[in-house]
Amino acid sequence: MFHNLLVAIDGSTHSSAALSEAIDIARQGNANLTLIATVPDPSTWLLGGATYSDGIDFEAIARETDREYNDLLENAVDQVPQDVSVTKVLAHGRPADRILERVDQGRHDLIVMGSRGRGQVRSLILGSVSHEVLNASPAAVLIVHAPTS
């Protein structure tokens, strides 16, 4: 039985399915949920190597991205029933690194995450976050696929 679940949230359909599965597990075992959303560094999104002199306002992009990911967390928290204990964490950096750090910090015994996130094109280039977490996590990992229509 798991007692302290970490759920990776990114707004994808796979992430939503993972949250639903984690809620079911938490309810069955009276476990705690921690929801984590990781804000990537905005400069990693740019494939053209643009710099500040190119007129890109990285601070504005970072503020907007923080707001977007915080909204994702709030929406996810709203989906958790009142009888399930939930904590939210907004992290910054490489998602796999932040998820793995949080596992240690929060003493989580299960990570629940979607098989694919919002960054599908990026994952083809850099490798899947779920794959990296699965291979490096000291805790059990449950990877959830979104239902097919």
Overview of the structural elements:
The protein has five helices and five strands, in the order E-H-E-H-E-H-E-H-H-E. The protein has 149 residues and is an alpha/beta fold. It has a five-stranded parallel beta sheet with strand order 3-2-1-4-5, with helices on both faces. Helix 1 (13-29) links the parallel strand 1 and strand 2 (32-39). It is globular.
- The domain tally reads 1
Order of helices and strands: EHEHEHEHHE
Q: Into which percentage range does the β-strand content fall?
A: 15-25%
The CATH first-level class comes to Alpha Beta
Mean pLDDT: 86
The name CATH uses for the topology is Rossmann fold
Largest sheet: 5 strands, parallel
CATH architecture annotation name: 3-Layer(aba) Sandwich
Spans of at least 5 consecutive residues with low confidence: 120-126
Distance between the termini: 31 Å
User: Which strand order does the major sheet show?
Assistant: 3-2-1-4-5
Shape: globular
Q: Indicate the radius of gyration in whole angstroms.
A: 16 Å
TL;DR of this structure?
With 149 residues, the chain is α/β, with parallel strands linked by helices. The protein is built from five helices and five strands; from the N terminus they run βαβαβαβααβ.
